[in-house]
UniProtKB/TrEMBL annotation, chain B:
This is succinate dehydrogenase. Residues 537-675 form the Fumarate reductase/succinate dehydrogenase flavoprotein-like C-terminal domain. One of its GO terms (cellular component) is plasma membrane. The keyword Hydrolase does not apply. Its EC number is 1.3.5.1. Gene3D superfamilies: FAD/NAD(P)-binding domain, Fumarate reductase/succinate dehydrogenase flavoprotein-like, C-terminal domain, Succinate dehydrogenase/fumarate reductase flavoprotein, catalytic domain. It is found in: Cell membrane. Keywords: Cell membrane, Electron transport, FAD, Flavoprotein, Membrane, Oxidoreductase, Transport. InterPro entries: FAD-dep_OxRdtase_2_FAD-bd, FAD/NAD-bd_sf, Fum_R/Succ_DH_flav-like_C_sf, Fum_Rdtase/Succ_DH_flav-like_C, SdhA/FrdA/AprA, Succ_DH/Fum_Rdt_flav_su, Succ_DH/fumarate_Rdtase_cat_sf. Its main location: membrane.
Amino acid sequence: MTATAGTESDTTSDGMKLTLKIWRQANPETPGAMHTFHLEGVSPDMSFLEMLDVLNEQLNAEGEEPIAFDSDCREGICGMCGLMINGQAHGPEVTTTCQLHMRTFSDGDEITIEPWRADAFPVLKDLCVDRSSFDRIIQQGGYVSVNTGSAPEAHSIQVPKDAADRAFDVATCIGCGACVAACPNGSASLFMGAKITHLGELPQGQAERDARVVNMVGQHDHEGFGGCTNIGECTAACPKEIPLDVISQLNKDLRTAMRHGH
Amino acid sequence: MTEFTSDVDSHPDSPGQDSDDAVGYYVPGEPIADTKAPGGPISERWNTRKFEARLVNPANRRKLSVIMVGTGLAGASAAATLGEAGYVVKSFCYQDSPRRAHSIAAQGGINAAKNYKEDGDSVHRLFYDTVKGGDYRSRESNVYRLAEVSTNIIDQCVAQGVPFAREYGGLLDNRSFGGVQVSRTFYARGQTGQQLLIGAYQALERQVNAGTVTTYTRHEMLELIVVDGKARGIIARDMVTGEIETHLADVVVLASGGYGNVFYLSTNAMGCNVTATWRAHRKGAYMANPCYTQIHPTCIPVSGTHQSKLTLMSESLRNDGRIWVPKNKADCTKDPRDIPEEDRDYYLERIYPSFGNLVPRDIASRQAKNMCDEGRGVGPEVEGVRRGVYLDFADAIGRLGRDAVEDKYGNLFDMYARITGEDPYQVPMRIYPAVHYVMGGLWVDYDLQSTIPGLFVTGEANFSDHGANRLGASALMQGLADGYFVLPHTIRDYLADGPFEAVDPSHPAVVEARRSVEDRIEHFMTVQGTRSVDSYHRELGNIMWEYCGMERTEDGLKKAIDLIRGLRDDFWRNVKVLGSAATLNQSLEKAGRVADFFELGELMCIDALNRRESCGGHFRGESQTEDGEALRHDDQFAYVAAWEFAMDEGLGAQKPVLHKEDLTYTAIEMKQRSYK
């Protein structure tokens, strides 16, 4: 470890020993491979990413380049982190990778860690992937067209509470991409369905409802995401528990738009 | 920059400062004044400025370019709005998507003076509460404007489809927040920041589609380009390819957030940093009140040296939880349920019998530190000290029943259980204060323009609205006020001088900026020392937390400055960054940020040393009442400390120049607060 880390906490003095099999890839062009690392003294109170921090400090001390992985808020809301852990997006619990803690694992465990795998999420380095395709889907209509300053008084728009609550529930999507990583087809239908449903539930979203779904689905397909075959792995992996029926709403809105001549 | 500093004569009543604790660490400079705020009645000033700010012909706007750094509430909202107006906007963020900026983590809500509850709220009352909450260290004109445009924010966000909480009649719900007596806080469950940011992000992406905004994600600003005294662009690093890029524009806006991560552990995101604002500071933008830090009392404590960040829990928990530590040090390792009532010290209830567990954030935080410093903290021992106090819901569960407690706090209890592995329905929670927000930032005038012409600063990155302490639910308000409704009006007065002559990328100022970035990266890649960046950052954070945290003293701050200077020198000689600069390299990214945190930390200590008074989040041990309460000295310190960067070459350290901006209140009377 480091020169300052002389004193360990109570909980880490005799922690877990783990075998970690981690995907390493130098850049988007070079093929990657699984590498094996051994880590000792892992505290059950560490988050999964703190465990990787400790591994990286160890690698740095040994002269090996630390493993690149994405994270930012580390409180489960920004959507920046996301790893395939033992083949499951965000690991064995319904939460984000940053909120998964090592007490979920046991001394002696072997843990496999890979990046999100999907054609539309190319690997940039090690465990980091490029999810800018999500931004490009939103660019195609994931908004209400209202310029700053042109909004009417807030109370002029009434929204029934059940619609507002439903809109909120699906608007909690954090755009992490676990749905895509979990889907055997690499489809982003849950991500799109969440946005379509959020704006479709609200009066503000009606004017652009048809164009929104047609354009977003068009971009989705253009990006190389796969089609939905209603397997449901997406919703099982979603850390925010976005329900599967947003995909029904997506399909329904798409049919309606096409009937309207889009 | 002389136009900002020459206005000495307008300050005949400049307050006299008895103390000069920071003597030798700084150079006294000329006073500074805000030359943009109009006079006249406070309620008319913003209208006056909007009218006086020159307009830009729509046909000319597409010939004018804006660089926006940061895509949080203050950045995304401004980029979208300027794009809608027709300017050419480049938007930068270090994250992989604009949607991830740390505004997203704000829980509580956003204040607005809508007075939907008809409970006596008004623009003036929101203004009054915010100035008072800031302990009379904010600028009156700016705060009034903030309160004034707060109502527009709600209209805008609702129209965007932000799913605010609603009542059964379909109208917006409000709640009371942060100890104020009116219900003016709009919220979306505990995820208000997320919903507001997604609204701004969608507006931004709409402009990307419209072709007015270009986004540069996974890009980090590493230098400001100043040509002929004006901000004309940035040097950025593509964090995937490592390429150093020059981006030129007619105006630069920094919306790059706060610098709480100078403490290493904070509730900020891992990537939050001071580099954008610090590089601007080094190029001539003054840094104002850098020592004003908000420390939040109810965070989940540190569990070990592996800790990478701290998580905040809503302080609403203090409404029903009782805070205590054992009376006897020997009990600190016992199961708290086995400690009998008579051996518990409910210290807030004991010291503050009338406010009890609901004392303000700074007092609750400081007392928790005192208890742990006495050796009565609980939870895991980290680096020799147990830093935690109990927040006990046993009484509340007994009084209200478990179901009622679960209704009110269920999501917070779940979050706590996930992070700690303990069930707070069975065992008391452990909490400890954590750095949460910084009120200090780059000095700006009423137009949000810094001391470098053409450099504007919005949101947490500037200093202007919160004084020495920020009230709950007002960070979101300020970010969106600046971005949607203030900056788009004030920036046009600057842009009205355009179109501007294009800057040649071979201009010496551009070449110099680029070379300095390349040299710095080259240095980090070639040092090949023995210590990781994180280990330095953690040690710097410990120094800041110990000496420039909840309680500051003259001796402690001087010691901290010495420690920081020594550690910084070691960092430059002995840091170890592996890998290549021509690829994604997270150690290299962190090295640049930590290098700037060192310099910022030094300045924060100098600022705290100079301000020998206690105000808001700044508590000087030497300035307290007999009861241990914060004591302001309005006669000496009713000013903004605006620091100009300067080096003492002999010392090899900063020796900044202090410019004072007097704070005068015409619409509000200054008062001393009391919680007895």
